[in-house]
Amino acid sequence: MEYQGALHGVRVLDLTRVLAGPFCTMMLADMGAEVIKIEVPKKGDDSRQFGPFVNGESSYYMNLNRNKKGITLNLKGRGKEIFLEMVKKADIVVENYRPGTMEKLGLGYEDLKKVNPRLIYGCVSGFGHYGPYKDRPGYDIIGQAMSGLMSTTGWPGGEPTRTGTAMADVLAGLSVTIGILAALRYRDVTGIGQKVDVALVDSAVASLEIINQIYLVEGRIPQRIGNRYESTYPYDSFRAKDGSLVIGAANDKLWQKVCELMGDPDLAFRPEFDKNYKRVQNHEEVKKLVEAWTMTKTVDELVDALLAAGVPAAPINTIDKVVNDPHIAGAREMFIEIDHPKAGRMKIAGTHIKMSDTKPCVRTPAPLLGQHNDEVYRDLLGLSADEIAALKEQEII
Amino acid sequence: MEYQGALHGVRVLDLTRVLAGPFCTMMLADMGAEVIKIEVPKKGDDSRQFGPFVNGESSYYMNLNRNKKGITLNLKGRGKEIFLEMVKKADIVVENYRPGTMEKLGLGYEDLKKVNPRLIYGCVSGFGHYGPYKDRPGYDIIGQAMSGLMSTTGWPGGEPTRTGTAMADVLAGLSVTIGILAALRYRDVTGIGQKVDVALVDSAVASLEIINQIYLVEGRIPQRIGNRYESTYPYDSFRAKDGSLVIGAANDKLWQKVCELMGDPDLAFRPEFDKNYKRVQNHEEVKKLVEAWTMTKTVDELVDALLAAGVPAAPINTIDKVVNDPHIAGAREMFIEIDHPKAGRMKIAGTHIKMSDTKPCVRTPAPLLGQHNDEVYRDLLGLSADEIAALKEQEII
């Protein structure tokens, strides 16, 4: 029997490439939607050329495009007509072109709405589909820079720092998924579709909202403060013998427990450290004292002792630790094995949204370029084998 | 007429505190759901004590809790019965307690399902509701550290670095919202509710998926590489006369345009720089050459010239620039003014999910503690004024 996910029966036409858009449609597919990824004939999604490669296949692509069907289609001429036929049978279209691209093809939301007013149109772009900067190119680094995220990440005296992943892309991919699903609910109730417009920059700005309040209320420009937080201490990273860990002693009681573990319970009550606000003021001194202790032990020893005493703590994991962690990779299934027809058996990311009744899961590997052309053009549009062969011949698909 | 959002008619009981959970229910409320925030009598959400403050009111709280109704309720004894009555009339419950807390109260998902099998139960926690680490405390910094995010953020030779916002909280808040909305679709179709379990750690791991592939495929542990990316150069930050900017010259053609702007078009074709992979190898030298040019001009001059030449570029904005930007704050309405009964007129974050037909918006300021007790207990549960007064008297609400 076919797997039934939460979004079973929802059909998505997926024009997205690279990261932000494919991350959205990956989540929709993991949750059971039928996602038909439409790629440029011969070439496909740019990310098919991005490493690392397994037997010549891009793991970047294979990770983000599992559970999707793959077809090829040139969106001009006869291909445009074919696309519009598919739109009539779809619930959702998602694209992450530069704003205006779909309009130039005659396939903007207003065009698609005419053939299917129930359609939900989700789009991700650097700056969004309206506003003075809408035509600017928008990559992840642009989103991280423009939004203020980089300006608040890093160390005092150091340079603005980007997050070590394409975070603006990820935030936008998550956010457009939310908008699409809310629009789906509205469409189910009212029969009316709509456009959901999400920008990398807006999404990164939204992630900063507490930081923004510091400026909005106090007029103070938030600075880079390393790994500590503005309001509590010691809630920071500390070096150990063999790496680093974080300790989250967010209140006086937890601080007292840290001092007990350090073998100096009286330290907690010294007048310059006894209240949280004083520790925030004297954070440099507190860090030195705590680090004098942590530097004498291993990360594992420290984390075990702190957790046993009820103090929030964790190792600062490198990726090899994460990928092999019994909780993360084991129980939470954040890395899973699939079989790919060319790459063979490989590990990709699992899904991080755990649902008790309709468990999101990986059912099929990412498609080869045009792998589902015959199936989709036959079953969805009713084209004959001869017609499909002619489309291939003319390089329309 | 009352505003109709995409989620109009959806009722949410919101037990969340501080950031990850409230960020989820904020988005649901912005999109039109009726969110009833349930707080501990007398004390309320911890974040009511978090600065910055406006006339004694927390802007942290006011930002994340706009559009919500606020009631107080002690979840033990008679309060538990009252909560279960409300669950019968709700579509969604969201909580971000440590796993097991709701079960101890007799209000875990299995308990709530008995009184309302259609209910969707969303929960956010540090490590999720199952797995060996489920009982560990999980703050944002724990999520950023455990997931590998910190290990890949920062500078070569420098320390692992956290993102300048509570990114693990934000990612989890976005992710649980996706799961809840997918579950809502499934519930609408089948009548069956379910539990959506999202962990800070899992959410941060999911944000790293391309980075994880570097280890999974190549066995290489991804390092901190500052602001450049692994696969393309110059795609990095550069210092200018008066600040820093980012340039995203992701291919040979864009690199040639940068060299033209630098007044040295031949540089683009020098054998050590003519192909992208060579520039990645020689990124230190390329950075020096480009920075020798950028250091002679202002950020604005550089960004204008680069954009005019079609090269992706942006200033690394500080928060004051973001909050006053004509695109971000203006056209995209990422900062909006509201009137709060105590704080007065103030600016909070707008919503970053732009929907054409049911525009998410801020209709009401965050509630004062217990502000909607009378309204909710009367209209939703049909309690009399005397009954409500007695509940207050007994400190149940």
From TrEMBL, chains A, B:
Gene3D superfamilies documented for this protein: Crotonobetainyl-coa:carnitine coa-transferase, domain 1, formyl-coa transferase, domain 3
Domain of life: Bacteria
Keywords for the protein's UniProt record, in alphabetical order: Transferase
GO molecular function: CoA-transferase activity
A Pfam family matched in the record: CoA_transf_3
InterPro entries: CoA-transferase_III_domain, CoA-Trfase_fam_III, CoA-Trfase_III_dom3_sf, CoA-Trfase_III_dom_1_sf
Iron found in the keyword field: no
SUPFAM superfamilies named among the record's database cross-references: CoA-transferase family III (CaiB/BaiF)
Name of this protein: Formyl-CoA transferase
Lineage of origin: Bacteria, Bacillati, Bacillota, Negativicutes, Selenomonadales
